Amino acid sequence: MQPLAGYGVSKVLESGHSDYKKGDLVWGFTKWEEFSLVSPTLLFKIEHTDVPLSYYTGILGMPGMTAYAGFFELGSPKKGENVFVSAASGAVGQLVGQFAKLTGCYVVGSAGSKEKVDLLKNKLGFNEAFNYKEESDLDATLKKYFPEGIDIYFENVGGKTLDAVLLNMRVHGRIPICGMVSQYNLTQPEGVTNLPNIIFKRVRMEAFFVNDFYHLYPKFLEFLLPYIKEGKILYLEDLAEGLENGPKALVGLFSGRNVGKQVLVVAHD
C-alpha cells in the first residue's frame, strides 16, 4: 500500500542534488509520511521564512498560485467589475475574493454554513455572501446580488451553481474553471442545461491546471508577500495534528467541515 501524496512543507535531511542541501526548507509534492524520497523537480525552495511555514501549503503554495493564475491570467479583472466566487471560504476561494477586492471589484461569495458566510463578510472583506444550502432558487439569489450580471465567475463547485451562473453572466464574461467539487463523488454527474448562454453572451469558459503557471511563481511572491506582511490579505487555516487524524480531515473536505485551508501537521520540526 502506498501513502497518500499531496502538497506539503518539508526539511531536507539528505540530498544528492546541487540545488538542495541538508537543512533547506522546501514545499512541493510530497507524501503523507514522516520521511520521503522525492524528486527535486517537484519542489520549490523556501526563501522567505518570516511567514508561517504552513502558508506554503496554502496561500504561498499551490492554492495561492491557483487563485492568482485563475483570477488574473484567465479572469483578466478590471476595476469595477462584478465577481462571484463559489466555495469562497476554501483554500483558493478566500484568496480570489481578496484579490478581487484589491483590484477594486464588487465581490460575492457562496459557502455552506452561517459561520463561513460571516467569515467572508466580516473578516475576508467580501461585499456580500450567502449560504447556498439555504437558497432554493440560485438563479433568483444571483439576480438579487448581481442585478447587472456577473463579469467573472471563479468556478469551484460545478453542478447547479454553474447552471444558475450561466443565466446571469454579462456579455464577454469570463469563467475560470478551477474545480467542480460538487461532482467528484457522484455516481452520475449532474448535467448543465444552460450552456447556450455562453454563446449568446460571448462568455469565455476556460479550465486550467496550476502546473502550467508555476513559471509565474517569482512574480506571484513579489505581488503577494507585501500584502501578507502589511496585513492586507488574511488567510484561514484549519489545522489537524498528527497522521492519525489525516483520514478524518480528508473526508471532511467533501462535507465542508473545514473552514479555510485544511492542513495536516505531521511534525513540527
Automatic annotation (TrEMBL):
<dbReference type="InterPro" id="IPR036291">
    <property type="entry name" value="NAD(P)-bd_dom_sf"/>
</dbReference>
<dbReference type="InterPro" id="IPR045010">
    <property type="entry name" value="MDR_fam"/>
</dbReference>
<dbReference type="InterPro" id="IPR011032">
    <property type="entry name" value="GroES-like_sf"/>
</dbReference>
<dbReference type="Pfam" id="PF00107">
    <property type="entry name" value="ADH_zinc_N"/>
</dbReference>
<dbReference type="GO" id="GO:0032440">
    <property type="term" value="F:2-alkenal reductase [NAD(P)H] activity"/>
</dbReference>
<dbReference type="InterPro" id="IPR013149">
    <property type="entry name" value="ADH-like_C"/>
</dbReference>
<protein>
    <submittedName>
        <fullName>NADP-dependent oxidoreductase P1</fullName>
    </submittedName>
</protein>
<feature type="domain" description="Alcohol dehydrogenase-like C-terminal">
    <location>
        <begin position="91"/>
        <end position="224"/>
    </location>
</feature>
<keyword id="KW-0560">Oxidoreductase</keyword>
